[in-house]
């Protein structure tokens, strides 16, 4: 379920009329996604059918940050990266404010891209995703915007502190100890001097649209920020190489993802050496947000929180000395 804002037919037609995209034919609420309200919009313009995604931003997205996210889409799309363009309204604005019963909310109309999100990726698909990730890292090199990573180590520390040791141990008796040990080690050794730029920071399979082994769309840039490129590789590795419950590390997916990335943007020796630590950080980042949501989502909420233990298992895997050579051995030169 992800349509939090109710819109009548006339209201929807009025929203679409502010953009030069033709006449509204249909608007269907999209079930996937949890943060914002999304609709698939069909219009007709000069006898041609067109499709878009309408997003109404709910409370989790800061309106002041929308220009960074939306301008970034335009910038990457203009450089040939597989990301949707933002449709600008007739005044040239990338987003608009819409009056609703709960107050003004921002909205944007985004190009619809074909493709589906895979749930059991193949090595060929992982390789293509690695390549697309490197492509956006390179394509954003001359993007003028910057945004601090609001989901970096200090945020994990705070979220995990808010969960409390008891809360974490209610998820698993060993989780408090694991988290404490990892937080301390990461705080001590987190690298700061590696190549950085704009990263996606949340490139899970549900944020990638694919047709066969081709990436047709990278979406959901609402965690994009300025941070280490190699950390983005680590996030994508954690998201793609373990199966949904985090217990099935797949070396073929890992190798293919890294090969795909390196073919487009070769990583330096220091980036490669940092990957095991960055992967522990990536696993802890999603463990932190998921544990917090798990412990703080009311039982009658519309959304089901995601399983934090799926990322505790990844964290244990990355932190296990037996897997220390994971990136070194599998990394093509
Ligand atoms: N540009 C696009 N082209 C085609 N489909 C899209 C596009 N953008 C979004 N979608 C569809 O809408 C769904 C919800 O989008 P999205 O994941 O951005 O929602 P969200 O609520 O903002 O995200 P999240 O759940 O990660 O917080 C996607 O799973 C995808 O099916
Ligand atoms: N991708 C995140 C959700 C926030 O986008 C997760 O799976 O925990």
Automatic annotation (TrEMBL):
Pathway: Amino-acid biosynthesis; L-threonine biosynthesis; L-threonine from L-aspartate: step 4/5. Its EC number is 2.7.1.39. Residues 27-265 form the Aminoglycoside phosphotransferase domain. Gene3D superfamilies: 3.90.1200.10, Phosphorylase Kinase, domain 1 (3.30.200.20). Keywords: Amino-acid biosynthesis, ATP-binding, Kinase, Nucleotide-binding, Threonine biosynthesis, Transferase. One of its GO terms (molecular function) is kinase activity. The keyword Kinase applies. It catalyses: L-homoserine + ATP = O-phospho-L-homoserine + ADP + H(+). The keyword DNA repair does not apply. Belongs to the pseudomonas-type ThrB family. NCBIfam families: PRK05231.1, thrB_alt. HAMAP family: Homoser_kinase_2 (MF_00301). This is Homoserine kinase. It comes from Novosphingobium panipatense.
